[in-house]
Write a structure and sequence with these properties.
Strand content: over 45%
Bound molecules: iron/sulfur cluster
Number of domains: 1
CATH class: Alpha Beta
Length: 94
């Protein structure tokens, strides 16, 4: 299962709590600041290692993180020699 995170820059206060709790170490403080002077956080995930566990979003005191998780659903229908398989799904967890 894979996931990704978006950051609402208008809400982030740069407290770095999410940076400390991500089990994959994918969040870090960026070299950018909000208009109010808060340092922004960013997701660095070139290998798509985010699992969508949502620990970061759960602990963010500003509700600035939104986590999306890719869910694979499979459906197989078999009748005689025919087979149909469907896969789809993307879930917004917050
Ligand atoms: S925990 Fe929330 S407010 Fe703190 S740095 Fe992360 S996204 Fe920003
Ligand atoms: S959802 Fe989990 S793996 Fe992904 S950035 Fe947040 S804490 Fe890290």
């Amino acid at each position: 299962m894979t996931g990704y995170v978006t950051i609402d820059e208008s809400l982030c206060k740069g407290c770095a709590l999410c940076v400390t709790v991500c089990p994959k170490g994918l969040l870090q403080l960026a070299r950018r600041f909000t208009s109010k002077g808060y340092q922004l956080v960013e997701l660095i995930d070139p290998a798509s290692a985010c699992t969508g566990c949502a620990i970061c979003a759960t602990l963010c005191p500003e509700a600035a993180l939104r986590v999306y998780r890719t869910v694979k659903k499979s459906l197989s229908l078999r009748s005689g020699q025919e087979s149909l398989s469907l896969r789809s799904g993307q879930g917004d967890l917050r």
